[in-house]
Amino acid sequence: MANIEAILSRMTLEEKIGQLMQYNASVFLDTSAEITGPMAQFGLSEADLGRLGSVLNFASADEMKQMQDMHLAKDPNKIPMLFMMDVIHGYRTIYPIPLGLSCSFDPELAKNCSRMAAREAGASGVQVTFTPMVDYARDPRWGRVMECCGEDPMLSGDLGAAQVEGFQGDNLKKPENLAACVKHFAGYGGAEAGRDYNLVERSERELREYFLPAYKACIDAGVELLMPSFNSLNGIPSVANPWLMQKILKEEWNYQGLVISDYNALGELLVHGIAADEKQAAKLAFENGCDIEMCSSTYLHHLKELVEEGAVSEEQIDAAVGRVLELKDRMGLFEDPYHGADQQKAESLYLCPEHRRIAREAAEQSAVLLKNNGLLPLDEKLNRLAVIGPFAREQGIIGSWSCCGRDEDSVSVAQGIRDLLPDAKITVAPGCGCRWDDRDTSGFAEAVEAAKNAQAVILCLGEPQSYSGEGNCRTDIRLPGMQLELARAVIEANPNTAVVLFHGRPLDIHELDEIAPAILSMWFPGSEGGSAAANLLFGRANPCGKLAMTFPRSVGQCPIYYNHPNTGRPHWTAEARQQHYASDYIDCGTLPLYSFGHGLSYSEFSYSDMEVSAPVMTAEEPIQVSVSLRNRSSRPGKEVVQLYMRDPVASVVRPVQQLIGYQKIAFGPNEEKQVRFTVTEEMLRFWNFEGQHVSEPGTIELMIGYADHFCTRATVELK
Ligand code: NOJ
Known about the structure:
This protein is α/β, with parallel strands linked by helices.
């Protein structure tokens, strides 16, 4: 263990401030660095490189070692740098995008995926990953929904915490463990109109109820770092927002870890119009608890001056630097500045059979069977198949934020089917019918011909991966280009057409839903997407994913989410919808196309005999809820049993339904099981008007099934 106090006592103020700065690896690696290039851009000197605390974005363990050596040679205190990167859903082997993975409702699986990513990333020299992203989101126009865990706060928290555990492991000194950074605190997913970086104006009660819990779950799981969001939250950008960074994070949650800004977020305080100059930006961010500044230079240029003027105390600087040094110490960097990184080992892990297996399983469990009129699963004996559509041969299905993942490493649907059924005659229309996004229909005739000659068609549609992710918001969330028209032509030519969908957000596919016999959503499934799709289409794997985010019927319904508070003129019961003056649209209605929790299986599950263990519950005496579940098919399968509650009378308007528990359970053929949940008073709490987290006595309705499609209900009195 390093003696942090002794190190601090040897450091000059400039050296301390250096620990609070982070820049791109290009400041080291760009050989034109001295006069022009990245160093000039950030106003860095050669000496600053010897004081730097951390670096982000680099290509390999060898590159990391080269930079660490360059730095240590210049650093009088010999303090190793930390190396950080966005390892979001895999390093080189890519597993499904986080929103897809959430549909697995399987925190253990998420943990496993993170372990695999940590192994590859750690060997490649990464020590800190900017993940998990648990921004609560309801608006599919926002491109970054692909990175989030969906529209339920509890599920987001569970998945986020599982990623923290998966990445961090039991001991940060081990090369296969990375420190995790939860982001973007807070409310980034609430951007007005689904437009990236836009303002977020939300009531404190809404923030506490929906937006904040998942970050807290990650902190409770021991996350080492936290990144404030770019957006202004109720008027002040997060990194400078005292309510968020001091009151909630430090005072209420007692967060002790590091805070790192987002990319140039301190520079953007000037653009927001919150700081008149860089000096004020540095002061605002630092006094609100931002320890490390990423890729702007307000600390580099002004923190020393602020200390000399007495606007910032050296004790505060020591506390921030202490947190940086302690993390370095917990990671064992003072003993091994390379953290065990080894490029040769990394190469042996990339896309290794075990990692590919995990990626495939994750893709299978994340896929959601949205519709099936009985066409799926397809019979493996079919020997004339047509694989059509712009995603038929596409390998660009790993999704945005794929770190070092490469499209060419991934398995396309056509390849996946070929691998599964080597003897079948598979026709892939050379032009695949059409491209994603232009109006060209010249490939339709060939696609229709292929469809006519096949016993079944697999039609692979979607939005390109570049349409989601940071900065990629859409106002029109339908299938781009001529894809719907292609679907019409192909389905008319051959009604045995199953659609396989690739996407980074819930899409408006209501017209496709009207014509397609079966629709399988793969999200962006990662390196093994095509093998997973093939297994699912032919019944080698049984779909079990459930939507973590609602699919609207029209973009005009957005934001749309299952757990919305009630209104005085509800739309969500059948009688209410008859009323003209209901909270409804005259041209579309308010029901989604597919709601949160929806997802079909090839097994047939029936629920019965929901029981509560007692009619009354108290804080001291929780109740048990049980339900019988039977697989009425001969096909083994998994079902995500979902328990919801509604609090019909409370001092504030409550959501019409709220998930309070879920269990993913495996069933053998025709197997029946009793599933039990414990419901505690704590699970029924909400934020009241006075800002307290309370439960109130009264009747609580409990429902099992999924949003708006409940199979069975019971009530309990909370005393
Ligand atoms: C900007 C993004 O908002 C954030 O999620 C990411 O971690 C950083 N850039 C670093 O790449």
